[in-house]
Amino acid sequence: MRCNLILLMSLACFACADGPSTAPSPSITDLAGTWVITRWERTAVANPAKRQDLLAAGYAGTLTISSTGAFTFQAILPGGASGTETGMITVHGNTLTYDGEADELEYTLTLGNRTMTWVAIEVELNDVDGDGSPEDARETLGFGRS
Question: Where are the domains of the chain?
Answer without folding.
Answer: 24-145
